[in-house]
TrEMBL record:
<keyword id="KW-0676">Redox-active center</keyword>
<dbReference type="InterPro" id="IPR013740">
    <property type="entry name" value="Redoxin"/>
</dbReference>
<feature type="domain" description="Thioredoxin">
    <location>
        <begin position="3"/>
        <end position="160"/>
    </location>
</feature>
<keyword id="KW-0560">Oxidoreductase</keyword>
<dbReference type="Pfam" id="PF08534">
    <property type="entry name" value="Redoxin"/>
</dbReference>
<keyword id="KW-0049">Antioxidant</keyword>
<protein>
    <recommendedName>
        <fullName>Glutathione-dependent peroxiredoxin</fullName>
        <ecNumber>1.11.1.27</ecNumber>
    </recommendedName>
</protein>
<dbReference type="InterPro" id="IPR013766">
    <property type="entry name" value="Thioredoxin_domain"/>
</dbReference>
<keyword id="KW-0575">Peroxidase</keyword>
<dbReference type="InterPro" id="IPR036249">
    <property type="entry name" value="Thioredoxin-like_sf"/>
</dbReference>
<comment type="similarity">
    <text>Belongs to the peroxiredoxin family. Prx5 subfamily.</text>
</comment>
<comment type="function">
    <text>Thiol-specific peroxidase that catalyzes the reduction of hydrogen peroxide and organic hydroperoxides to water and alcohols, respectively. Plays a role in cell protection against oxidative stress by detoxifying peroxides.</text>
</comment>
<dbReference type="InterPro" id="IPR037944">
    <property type="entry name" value="PRX5-like"/>
</dbReference>
Length: 160
């Protein structure tokens, strides 16, 4: 069952690019303090993710912070090197934390994985966005296949 309001962010190791190379981080720590917004994408460099999803959160980062959001993070089932390259390509600096879930362990713990093996992509994340306060989920928006409505930065701003 997918993560629901009231559930805690699971303590699962993710990877984050750093100047010294990939470093291990704990999802529950990154997203467990204050108000956090996490959005998940099927993959870095994929069309909707690159044209609309990530850019929307970069553009709305200041508005999210103004509404009390401490952390804005993006997660994808990619490795830390791909996430760093995507961040560079998209002009992301420190307004969005880029998290790599290379083996989909975190996405599976959230119950938001999907199997795209038949399309040559393996296990990926569904497109979603959630809000957590103090490590507890308060809102989850999961997109229907092909849709981009409930997980956009504007949709999350409306929930804050």
């Amino acid at each position: 069952m997918p993560i629901q309001p009231g559930d805690a962010i699971p303590s699962v190791k993710l990877m984050q690019a750093s100047a010294e190379g990939p470093k291990e981080v704990d999802a529950a720590v990154i997203l467990g303090h204050g108000t956090a917004v996490l959005f998940g994408v099927p993959g870095a460099f994929t069309p909707t993710c690159s044209a609309r999803h990530l850019p929307g959160f970069v553009q709305q980062a200041a508005a999210l912070k103004a509404k009390g959001v401490n952390t804005v993070a993006c997660v994808a089932v990619n490795d830390a090197f791909v996430m760093a390259a995507w961040a560079k390509d998209q002009g992301v600096t420190d307004e969005v934390v880029m998290l790599a879930d290379g083996s989909a362990a975190f996405i599976k713990a959230l119950g938001l994985d999907m199997d795209l093996t038949a399309r040559g992509m393996g296990v990926r994340s569904q497109r979603f966005a959630l809000i957590a306060k103090g490590g507890k989920v308060t809102h989850v928006g999961v997109e229907q296949p092909g849709a981009f409505e409930v997980s956009s930065a504007d949709a999350i701003l409306a929930q804050l």
